[in-house]
Amino acid sequence: MGTPAEEGGGGKVTEVDAGLFDGVDAALMFHPGVHSWRWAPLTAQAQYQVALHGRAAHPTGNPTEGIDALAALIQLFNTLAVVGRRLPAGSHVQGIVTHGGRATNIIPDYAEGLFGLRAATTAALDGLAMELLTCAQGVARATDTTVTVERTTSRYEHFRDSTVLSERFARHLIRTGHSITPPEPGVYLGSSDIGNVSGRVPAIHPFVAIMDPDGSDHTPEFATAAASDRGREAMLAAAQALACTAVDVLLRPDVREQAWKDLTTATL
Fold it and tell me: What is the number of helices (H) and of strands (E) in the chain?
């Protein structure tokens, strides 16, 4: 099944919501990487726009009549920095200023920030979004501004690994001469819309290395590795392991039933 727009568009989210995965036995995929890991430690993720409205004025001529929306936005960044010190592993808030005023001789009446939120679980992400809203509303009250907070992207849920299927994949991959291990504890590698699929059907998302661990994906070097002999060999080995895992799902009712049992009893 083609699932476009994982990088920001959330193609799988749209497809899940449209029912394309209804009746599917399992969702199997792999991702090239710098590690060979049985499953992907992927967090829940969403982006939120925070817009603050104040009142324009001249900073010299009538400064007391102004309400500085940019100063309020900066205060929000400072508040979130304090909140960030107590967030658990896997959670963070990263923000950028997308609008900060038009001229230095005008107190900004409008300021806007875009904030990326991540958390180890989908429930924790929802809690973090509420913290963002609480902080934004508190800053608005303190600065006499008004604020709106809106989610601007699809919400990516955290990934839930189907252990029985990822173990089958690992066995098949090892037969091709590749080693594969569980991920390193406490390491999170980002987010993906496969998380939304994994909450509806048993799913796997292993990594198969195409370059050494001292590298990183989303780099020119990783693009070169993808076109290398090592990249091609890893792709073919992973494709073979995926196909063998699909055969297990289709021909072994015990594997399929255990995968669904694990999914339905998992803590969301």
Answer: 8, 8
